[in-house]
Amino acid sequence: MNLELDRDQRQLADAVRKGGSAVPPGGSGWEVLRHAGVTAALADGGLVEWCLALEELGAGCHDITAVRAGLAFLDAHPGERLPDAMTTAPPAVATTDRDLLLCAAYAVGLGRACLEAAQNRAADRVITGRRQIEYQGTSHRLAEAALELALARITVWHAAWYEDQGRPDGHAAPAAAGASVETALTCAHTLVQAYGAAGTSDPDVVRLYRGAYTLTQLCGSPRGLWQTAGERWLATA
After folding, report:
1. First to last CA, the chain
2. pTM of this prediction?
3. How many alpha carbons fall within 13 Å on the CB side of residue 50?
4. Which side of the chain, N or C, has fewer Cβ within a 10 Å radius?
């Protein structure tokens, strides 16, 4: 498996990132994809491409209900074009491994947004004459969160790549989701610690923190996901 993105994949992620600026946080992720002009590329692409797009939607806290329905439509109607609007809502909780990986990629993006906001706050906030990021406790928390985030992203790409190869790794999807949801929660807590009491009244911090905990309803708890991954792995050992 090649962990480097190719040119088309980088362009897709950049387009979704730019398209996100046209839709406010909490708005429709499907509208972001349409503004970005990537729906055709996603229809022709694999699950890895969908996960790249979902990470950017997670970073913008956009609603992915219609996006999940779009992938379900393609899975049910291979070779067909994506419709302009998705009218069928997916289940409230991810029920297939492919849907679960979309949600895991979204969790990586949301965790990334939390971490970037925490890094910016720690770089700007001054405490007793020193920037917050210069304190060892803060810098260690940020570094640990960044490492967790990178590892979670790799687990999502790994599982999605095997799906695209037609040989899904049975335990990989719940393991990737478990790592991603846990990482999003870690990054959300790191964000709150960086802001302190001021974070309770900051709408961006509140939105990201609530979004991280909403993931446990969408994907399940990290503990439950890890348990499912372990049971699947033992069943094939």
Report:
1. 22
2. 0.94
3. 27
4. C
Give how far Cα 65 sits from Cα of 70, 107, 171, Å.
9, 14, 25
Residue 126 is given by DSSP the state E
Instruction: Express each pLDDT in 58-79 by its tens digit.
Output: 999 999 999 999 999 888 888 7
CB 36 within 8 Å of CB 67? no
- For 42-51, how does the pLDDT look when each residue is reduced to its tens digit (9 = 90+)? 999 999 999 9
* Nearby residues of 55 by Cβ (< 8 Å), 6 or more positions away: 13, 105, 106, 108, 109, 112, 153
Pair of tokens at residue 189: 């807590």
β strands within the chain, DSSP E: 126-127, 130-131
**Tokens at 9, concatenated:** 């994949």
How far is the C-alpha of 25 from the C-alpha of 21, rounded, in Å?
9
Residue 68: alpha-carbon gap to chain centroid: 13
At residue 181, the 3 state secondary structure works out as helix
Phi/psi for 77 (5° steps) reads -130, 65
Q: How far is CA 166 from CA 46, 106, 170, in A?
A: 11, 22, 12
What does the CA dihedral 229, 231, 232, 237 come to, rounded to 10 degrees? 120
* 61 contact partners, CB below 8 Å, separation of at least 6: 25, 26, 110, 113, 207, 208, 211
* Residue type for position 62: H
**In contact, 143 and 85? CB cutoff 8 Å:** no
Q: How many helices (H) and strands (E) does the chain have?
A: 10, 2
Cβ atoms of 173 and 97 closer than 8 Å: yes
